[in-house]
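Why predict the complex rather than its parts? Because the way molecules touch one another can change local conformation, and only a joint prediction can capture that. The input here totals 458 residues.
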Amino acid sequence: MAKKVLILVGTKKGAFIVESDAARSSWALRGPFCAAWPMNHVIADPVTGTIYGGGGNEWFGPAVWKSTDLGATWTHSSEGLAYDAGEQPIKAVWSVAHGAGSLYAGVEPAGLFRSDDYGQSWRHIAGLRNHPSRPKWQPGGGGLILHSLVPHPNDKGQLWVGISAAGVFHTADGGETWEPRNRGTRADFLPAGQNYPEYGQCVHCLVIAPGMPDRLYQQNHCGMYRSEDGGRHWDSIEPGLPSTFGFPAAVHPRDPATLYLLPLNGDTTGRYVPDGKAAVWRTRDCGGSWQALRNGLPQENAFFGVLRRAMATDRLAPAGVYFGTNTGTLFASADEGDTWNCVAQYLPAIFSVETLVVEA
Amino acid sequence: MANDEASLALPPVVVTLPAALVNLFPGCVRRVDLSAATVGDAIDALDARWPGMRDRICDSRPGIRRHINVFVGGERATLETRLAPGAAIMVLTAISGG
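Output of the joint prediction:
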């Protein structure tokens, strides 16, 4: 049966959907949706096709938006999406993920919520903020934000989260108790001798390998890493990459050894693509070696960055790869990154890119 | 006292809502007549008609959201501000919110 591919784009001013058939050669843009709110992460349930968008509006606060008709109409809810009276209120939803029949939301200031009614109401998973490390959590440059949500594909009690800048935390009991899992990742912004703390790293993006739930990859403010034991230990996969700094990471839909990164030139030198030349970097061997993918990407005077949730793959074969820039340009590849095309531009700054494949 | 009798004892007021807020709730209107003793009660009454509206005007401290202004009779108000019969309540999006 014919398929169509939707690129779900969260931006500073609304959500957008860019749609094509399975050939992925001609794209049509729809939007803006969600009342032009800042939409930090827009995802879809691949089984039902329901689209969820987490965001936050300076006037009206945080909410999760939802569409059950591929973006034609939207509703929003923040029922239960709140901390106790007296605590600093939630400013925005920064990440949304579905797993084991539930929907999760990560928020700012960092915390975790779960919905068991498809986003209508939310319950605070308080165990995370009750972790004894919490008084020492420091914000990253963009705030104290839970931006990465990785449910275990088979065990509904397991979940990994990434917080800037508290690090990676894991639960095995549905969120009642948590442990930091940051051994081996650096915090270069701490004094010498303190650069490998138990927590406090500025993780930027955490992803899980398909079919191998003990393998995780991480793009950190200070390096790129792989774990083979569920995040208990991390090994650097930086050799061969042009820098140690970047934001997004995207796994291949089927190959656990293939990962896509988009290193930037550094945290103090503009956070642009290195040397004004855009490239996505791909490994086919779990980070042992890297290939720069530039065909169709600008190779001069490119001064954009790509933010932590703004790169994704689709589940077709060959896999599509997509990324959106903080200058509002969306690039797509239909051949696993070998060649690229610009499929949308002049959008607001892009915060997130995800995909949905549905029957046409 | 039955609910309708209780509401009759409350002062009738009129609330004006900003377009950006009205647009978030299908069927909502800019000018709403209701009965409430305080600004907080008026917001509760709005929420009863359009579930979820309280969360758009108030945060969890609890208080009026930082970038929302509520005026009663032209004076800046809080959730505790008491309302006289015929009070005009204006909910406005603050310029500080963009």
